[in-house]
Structures are given as structure tokens and as C-alpha cells.
Amino acid sequence: MPRPSSLRDSTQIVLPKEALSGLESQLDDEFTLTIFPENDTHYRLIGSPVEIKAASQFLARQGVSVR
After folding, report:
1. Residue 66, pLDDT score
2. What is the pTM of this model?
3. Three-class secondary structure assignment of 3-65
4. How far apart, in whole angstroms, are the C-alpha atoms of residue 14 and residue 47?
5. Residue 67 burial (CB count, 10 A)
6. What pLDDT does 6 receive?
7. What residues pair up with 44 in beta bridges, in sequence order?
8. Residue 6: CB partners within 8 Å, gap ≥ 6?
9. In which band, very low, low, confident or very high, does the pLDDT at 12 lie, cut at 50, 70 and 90?
10. pLDDT reading at 7 higher than 60
11. Which of 56, 54, 47, 64 is nearest to 8 (CA)?
């Protein structure tokens, strides 16, 4: 049985809002993600493991550090 934390890590990304500045519309257009404001300073990107992996690669190409 997979650990809940490993499933969560493969289905979401949490980033500071400034890291996504100007990229929100591209992410919304290119990937099937839900972009949810986590609080005043962060966004939570939620999607399937395939979409999260592709979005992570896209963000890395844009210079955004994804852990």
C-alpha cells in the first residue's frame, strides 16, 4: 500500500505566488491542473501524477525551482 505522503507529492505542488508570476495562464492553458490559492503567499497546484510531472518540467524550464 502506498504511503499517503508519496501520493500527495505526486499529485500536487506548492509554490510561492511570486514564483508563478506571469505563468498562471500558461499553466492553465497547457495542463489540466487546479491552481488553488493556499494562503496569501502560496499557490497549490493539484492534478494527476502525469500532469504534475509535466507541469514540474515546464516550471523547471522557466527557472522555477520545484522540490
Report:
1. 84
2. 0.82
3. CHHHHHHHHEEEEEHHHHCCCHHHHHHHCCCEEEECCCCEEEEECCHHHHHHHHHHHHHCCCC
4. 12
5. 7
6. 58
7. 14, 36
8. none
9. very high
10. no
11. 47
Q: Is the dihedral of CA 11, 30, 55, 64 positive or negative?
A: negative
Amino acid in position 7: L
The answer to whether 33 and 47 are in contact (CB under 8 A) is: yes
In single-letter form, the type of residue at position 32 comes to T
| Mean pLDDT computed over 44-59 | 95
| pLDDT the model gives residue 61 | 95
Q: Do the beta carbons of residue 31 and residue 54 sit within 8 Å? A: yes
